[in-house]
Design a protein that fits this description.
Largest sheet: 7 strands, mixed
Order of helices and strands: HHEHEHEEHEEHEHH
CATH architecture: 3-Layer(aba) Sandwich
CATH class: Alpha Beta
Number of domains: 1
Strand content: 5-15%
Number of strands: 7
Structural class: alpha/beta
CATH topology: Rossmann fold
Radius of gyration: 17 Å
Number of helices: 8
CATH superfamily: NAD(P)-binding Rossmann-like Domain
Shape: globular
Strand order of the largest sheet: 3-2-1-4-5-7-6
């Protein structure tokens, strides 16, 4: 095992590291949540990662997104992410897609080739389609619920979607999946009620976006990465 992962191997063991090195994970959305998920997966010794996002880095991303720096503004997020990922581990395989994931673009992906799927996208329609496609082929998936307008990262929990409460996004997803007879979905969600943002003086375009910070989305992303890793290596404790 490479020296770069020697500290990880002390915890996981050689067999687990070999499983990670042979695994391929797709991360849909690499913003505040998904970017930290991707980073943690790469730093844990993952062998291949697909990153999917059609956005470019902008100045308002600097407060919370790991791939957002002054030098990456106006670059596609997946391009900025790939450069950093390969700087961490040049041996990993990185596949990038400048794709806005929706039902119309789902045929660009063969979900059977992934060992795990991370849903860190924002749109309900896209999330539902991603969950449905993963369920259809039996590929494990974990989905991020709402991380905006929150101040307490310690209130995140890992649960089945049908055991969630408080989170407005989880409620919408839960109701839709129930109608579609999807029996389960692992999610990371928060029981913290969203903070009501003062929109006085804001333009209509700014009002459409939630408030966010450096320490809430990042924690959600790291929790997701931990769940993916533990599931891939079969960690039971």
């Amino acid at each position: 095992m490479s020296e770069k992962f020697s500290r990880t191997e002390l915890l996981f063991g050689k067999e687990a590291m070999e499983k990670l090195a042979s695994a391929r994970v797709a991360v849909f959305g690499i913003g505040g949540v998904g970017g930290h998920t991707a980073e943690a997966l790469v730093r844990s010794g993952l062998g291949a990662i697909d990153i999917i996002d059609n956005d470019k880095v902008c100045e308002s991303n600097l407060n919370r997104q790991i791939y957002a720096t002054l030098s990456t503004i106006d670059k596609y997020k997946v391009d900025a992410a790939k450069e950093r990922i390969l700087d961490i581990n040049p041996n990993i395989t990185v596949n990038t897609y400048k794709t806005f994931y929706m039902p119309e673009t789902s045929n660009e992906f063969d979900f059977r080739q992934y060992d795990y799927i991370v849903d860190a996208i924002d749109t309900v329609t896209g999330k539902i389609e991603l969950i449905m496609q993963a369920n259809k082929v039996g590929t494990p998936i974990i989905s991020s619920m709402g991380a905006g307008n929150k101040m307490h990262p310690e209130m995140f929990e890992v649960a089945d979607i049908y055991k969630t409460s408080v989170c407005p996004l989880a409620r919408v997803i839960r109701q839709d999946l129930k109608k579609r007879k999807i029996p389960k979905l692992k999610v990371v969600y928060s029981k913290e009620p969203p903070i009501k943002i003062n929109t006085d003086g804001m333009t209509d375009s700014k009002k459409r976006f939630p408030g966010s910070n450096a320490f809430v989305p990042s924690v959600a992303g790291l929790i997701i990465a931990g769940e993916v890793i533990k599931d891939l290596i079969g960690y039971k404790k």
